[in-house]
Amino acid sequence: MFVNGIPVATAELKSHYTQGIQDAIYQYQTDREPLFKPKNAPEPLLAFPGGALVHFAVSNAEAAMTTRLAGLDTVFLPFNQGNAGGAGNPPKDGIATDYLWKEVWQRDSFLQILGRYLVPVKNDKKQLTGWIFPRYHQLKVTRRLVAAVTAEGPGHKYLVQHSAGSGKTNSIAWSAHFLADLHDAQDQKVFDTVIVISDRTVLDTQLREAIESFERTRGVVAVVTGEGASKAGNWPRRCPPARRSSSAPSRPFPSRWTKCASWRQRGTSASR
Q1: Do both 255 and 160 map to the same domain?
Q2: Residue in 46, 241, 242, 212 with CA at minimum distance from that of residue 120
Q3: CATH of the domain at 157
Q4: What's the rounded Cα separation, in Å, for the pair 175 and 209?
Q5: pLDDT class of 116 with cuts at 50, 70, 90
Q6: By the number of CB atoms within 10 A of the CB, which of 59, 166, 214, 243 ranks highest?
């Protein structure tokens, strides 16, 4: 798949009549080397970071993806819809993975992913080491949440259930940024500030790092860490109205919710 001549995605397609998704994954691992070994030269479509951004292994029944090929060490993540709360895709007449080209690879959808979801991963030296590409359930939940808020306006409650290891930190970070940028039909901002609150120290650190790394415009994210003062004391000073998105743990703020009301010129979204 190319955008203006630039490779952005590859796919290995298998028919369940002869092969399955594991065959596609194995082919990527053993026969899709990112380097052309005789000359140790990068393969234009497969090398990192100059090649495609994501690689899909697809059969009639299931799909998986990876953002970096590394031979047998390549790790693929499921890219399925889920089936009655479990893995895989729901059975249907026809091809169960047709949501890929109908929903994900559809032009406007895929351009949105490239423009708003794709996030670079860098090491301590600020060197690019990978990409964060949304999995199907992350696309679905963030898009449904934005669509619901757009239709219903601020002030409603929503529950999102995630299993362990499903990427809830990234889902929260994407949602926070999308809601902070959300405008209504009159092109007015729906929320002045989006506040993300967690009740676990480890998750708080992960959320802070994710929200900061997803930031596209410097200075729109504020993090309440309590450094130099109490977190509760920093809360009203650090967050609104200048900051669009902020992150903090919940325990220091049992009485701070009363102050949120004074910040709601148009609306403040609080997610816990």
Answers
A1: yes
A2: 212
A3: 3.40.50
A4: 15
A5: very high
A6: 59
